Amino acid sequence: MSSTPPETDGAADSGAHPDEPRSLCIEDWLTVIIMAALALITFANVLVRYFTNSSFAWTEEISVFLMILLALVAGSAAVARNLHIRIEFFADSGSSARRRKLARFGSLMMALLFALIAVLSVRVVWDDFRYEETSPGIGVPQWWYSIWLPIVSALITLRALGLYIRQGKPGAFTDELVENGPHAPSLRVDAAPQGGDSLPWGGPAAKKDHSKEIT
Q: CB count, 10 Å around CB of 105?
């Protein structure tokens, strides 16, 4: 038995999930920008209200729009990282084949749902543009806000399809990941101590009793 420790994958050392995409820079940067804009707008409104006893009329409408957009962008990142809520009793129980089928079915239904939202919301944007609808607060064109719904819905659809593909790859669902957690090292039989004192999972190793051989 070789004493050389097994090589570890770079992804495992960095703590990345096996079903996580390589890059989520779009969602991450949009989240940072939206959060920064919300903080600046709210802080400026508080200062103006404190010193002038009045507030900006446009801050509430813009803040509501940014919070809705933030929820959609964060939802896209959660889909890509496979972090949406689920009932673990059903999602994490059973064989690997059963978990794979349930997970892929959920990802496919999610992709179909947001694809339908993206298609139907295009009609809403077109109606806002055609009838020249304006926002109730500051009177800007309504389609400035509604156009983001089909865009982010299409992004979520692509993220859900990517998750569906990754969940179908070999090794995406293993018993070791379910029993020990996604970041726990898998148990290797060849990693047992050469002395035979204990097994890798802590149980006592069977030793040969030589006392009975002594006559």
A: 12
CA atoms within 13 Å, Cβ hemisphere of 207: 11
Question: Which pair of tokens denotes residue 202?
Answer: 């802590």
Q: Record the tokens describing residue 101, joined without a space.
A: 């089928």
- How many other CB atoms are there within 10 angstroms of residue 10's CB atom? 8
- Over its length of 215 residues, how does the chain's per-residue pLDDT go in tens digits? 444 444 444 444 444 454 566 678 889 999 999 999 999 998 988 888 888 877 777 888 899 999 999 999 999 999 999 888 888 877 888 888 888 999 999 999 999 999 999 999 999 999 999 999 999 888 899 999 999 999 999 999 999 999 999 998 887 776 544 444 444 444 333 444 444 444 444 444 444 454 444 54
Structure tokens at 39: 């903080």
Q: What is the DSSP string of 53-76?
A: S---SSHHHHHHHHHHHHHHHHHH
Cα 81 to Cα 97: distance, rounded to the nearest angstrom: 21
Cα–Cα separations (whole angstroms), residue 186 to 3, 7, 37, 80, 157 = 18, 13, 44, 24, 33
Q: Which residue has the tokens 């995409």?
A: 21
Give the amino acid at 28: D
In terms of phi and psi (left: phi > 0; alpha: psi -120 to 50; beta: otherwise), the region of 139 is left
| pTM for this predicted structure | 0.68
The Cα 200–Cα 114 span in angstroms is 46
